[in-house]
Amino acid sequence: MSLSVTLSLVGLTACGGSDDTTDSDAASSSAPAGSDDAAASSAPDPAAPDAMPEPDLEEIPDPVATVNGQDVTKEEFVTYYESQFASAAGQAQMSGEEVDEEQLQEDTLEVVVDSVLLRQAAEEEGLEPSDEEVDTLLEELATGNGLESVDQFLEVLEQQGMDEETARREAASQLAIQAYVEQEAPVEEPTDEELRAYYDELVAQQEDAGGNEDDASGTAAPQQPEIPEFDQVRDQLAQQLQSEEQAAATDELVAGLREDAEITSHL
Hints:
Blueprint: H1 7-13, H2 25-30, H3 36-42, E1 65-67, E2 70-72, H4 74-95, H5 101-124, H6 131-144, H7 150-159, H8 164-184, H9 192-217, H10 230-259, E3 263-265
Antiparallel strand pairs: 1-2, 1-3
Helix pairs in contact: 1-8, 4-5, 5-8, 6-8, 9-10
């Protein structure tokens, strides 16, 4: 779900794992520090022309916004903004352009406000996950980040300034939001007919992409990997289709929450 990736979950999953995961964006941007020698060798040279820029946090107000009387603190905003900036800076570096920080801050705030609205709605519904559910989510996040245990995961978060109490609170918040979205915007499992139509669309898109590239260049298009047979990817298709439908339903749900909300930006 596009909006289930809220501030809380982004803050948790942004941590890096072992050396095996350093090729991922999340791991490379926030992997835990190793030995002093390793840190020194991997640290970017500020004088280097291609050194990654740092976000300007000086002018960000505190609070950043007020949502239905609840302040969004600078700390809460920056946790997500730094992750967004790292991604945008990487893309800008490849394109040779500069990051539009003003626009990025506004876009980030939109996502954070959506997260707060969902969290408030979940609280009003009395949706509160159990300790066991929180433990399960932390285990999934640890595994997903290439870590061997929740304790190791929490150690990484501690290095990044998030203590265990905060991590568990944010995980609980994420679970409550997920429960609220599933309650208010349920998505049914797709039928075989829907999945086959979705599969046929993907196949057609691949064929069109190959043909268009061939026509545009006047040369043979590079060989595209063939999409596996329908039965081989049925489960993946079902997950993807449900995810897309859930994202659309969640966007509509948040739009409704925004209509009734009092939102003040201080950016």
